[in-house]
Amino acid sequence: MSKVFFDIGLSLDGFIAGENRSPQNPMGGVAPAIHQWMFNQKAFWEHLKTTGGEEDTEDGDRIRQVFARTGAYIMGKRMFEEGEVSWPEDLFMAPVYVLTHEKREPWVQKGSTTFYFINDGMESAFEKARASAGKKDIRVQGGANLIWQYFNGGYIDEFTIHVAPVLLGSGIRFFDGIDRTTFSLKTIGASHTPLVSHLTYSVGR
Amino acid sequence: MSKVFFDIGLSLDGFIAGENRSPQNPMGGVAPAIHQWMFNQKAFWEHLKTTGGEEDTEDGDRIRQVFARTGAYIMGKRMFEEGEVSWPEDLFMAPVYVLTHEKREPWVQKGSTTFYFINDGMESAFEKARASAGKKDIRVQGGANLIWQYFNGGYIDEFTIHVAPVLLGSGIRFFDGIDRTTFSLKTIGASHTPLVSHLTYSVGR
Fold first, then answer.
1. Helix (H) or strand (E) run with residue A80 in it
2. Ranges for the Bacterial bifunctional deaminase-reductase C-terminal domain (chains A, B) (predicted)?
3. How far is B87 from chain A (nearest CA, A)?
4. DSSP character for B133?
């Protein structure tokens, strides 16, 4: 059964992004603090169609597995705009449904990534993603606002947070946008390497 | 080498306690949410010198290990006052140094728990705890304010947070009291059962 999930990096004090985000300053500049564990992995740079990273450990396997399980993405307009300027061709290797008010033709890339621009709401984006994903899973990619909408709307089956051992002190606190009254969580996974703890939860209603 | 540590329960959104704490309302009433994994364990109730709990799993072993490693405790006045009214005799089975302005004779209990009331500051309490602990470890027990003082003062070698899969939305955010500029963290442990993730960090300076 296809699952709907999100998979995000957080600081130990719960921030998913810093202040003053823009396409020129994605994530408010905190990506090196939160995502260092990814940047160290060859698997991460392979997906960016370049080389980099010194390591190929269980953290790299995890990166590959998340790409492999995902049959379709749903993305917010702001995240798309932050990424559009720098993502390489065919980063996602699956359809990406971008929720936006902008009317725009699909952006078909070489390979299997196509960005579709959805103007008629989250349920419409979800149905299209479900049809595309087949037996694979649907990833609600981000940003925070989009994940909150789908979480609070009852769409999310499970999620993983990658908790970096850093404190940021300011920015967007991820869990502040979650409606606390509508669900229960069960811890279904925890593992670590020195730069990160990977925690996975299933969501009950 | 004897270590200095703290070991606390947090909600997934980072709260160590709720609002309106008092001896009549310890932890602001959120203990059932944060500590359910402990309350399910026989080991927890054994230490309270009573019976309770349905389970005796790795979570119970963890409770026993934390008591076993601890040779002395340092505690804040407020936590002591919240607990004094309800703790059973000899709960801690080691000396407990309570930082307070109250002048009071040591409270010697049956067994090996003695509460000492320290009026001349955190360094004095620490030195007494170190002398008592011998080769065992020193636990900075709580509350949050006391842990912040010792963490920010550079005393803490490692810590464990037990993250419950619940969101509280308000109360005392534990990491807000940590001075972010003075240390680095390494993730050295992560495990889980359905009701909790146990994350352990070492502190570098």
1. helix A77-84
2. 3-186
3. 30
4. H
Are residues A190 and B197, on separate chains, in Cβ contact within 8 Å? yes
Tallying the residues shown for chain A, one arrives at 205
Beta strands in chain B, from DSSP E residues, in sequence order: 4-11, 15-17, 70-76, 95-99, 107-108, 114-118, 137-142, 158-164, 172-173, 184-193, 196-204
User: pLDDT by residue (tens digit) across A12-42?
Assistant: 999 999 998 887 888 888 888 999 999 999 9
Alpha-carbon distances of B189 from B14, B63, B147, B185, rounded to whole Å: 18, 16, 20, 12
Whether the CB-CB separation of A59 and A196 falls below 8 Å is answered with yes
Predicted ipTM beyond 0.90: yes
Pick the CATH number of A4-204 from 2.40.128.90, 3.40.430.10, 2.60.120.10, 3.40.50.300: 3.40.430.10
Q: What is A119-141 written as a DSSP string? A: -S-HHHHHHHHHHHHTTSEEEEE
Mean pLDDT score, B88-113: 96
Bond into A154 cis (ω within 30): no
Q: How many inter-chain contacts (A to B, CB under 8 Å) are there?
A: 83
Would you call B22 exposed, middle or buried from its count of C-beta atoms within 10 A (0-12, 13-18, 19+)? Answer: exposed
**Hey, which residues 167-196 in chain A have their CB within 8 Å of chain B?**
167-169, 173, 175-176, 178, 180, 184-196
pLDDT for B1 beyond 80:
no
* Tens digits of residue pLDDT in A145-193: 999 999 999 999 999 999 999 999 999 999 999 998 879 999 999 999 9
Identify the three-state secondary structure at position A153.
coil
Structure-token pair, residue B117: 């009331």
Task: Indicate the pairing of strand A137-142 with strand A70-76.
Answer: parallel
pLDDT bucket at A62, cuts 50 / 70 / 90:
very high
Q: Please name the helix (run of DSSP H) or strand (run of DSSP E) that holds residue B128, with its range, or none.
A: helix B122-133
Looking up tokens 């269980």, which residue turns up? A58
Give pLDDT, residue A28: 86
CA distance A141 to chain B (A): 20
Query: How far from B92 is each of A93, A187, B95, CA to CA, in Å?
Result: 57, 30, 8
Residue extents of the structural domains in chain A: 4-204
- Please answer yes or no on whether B166 and A189 come within 8 Å at the CB atom: no
- The percentage of residues in chain B with a pLDDT greater than 70, rounded to a whole number, is 100
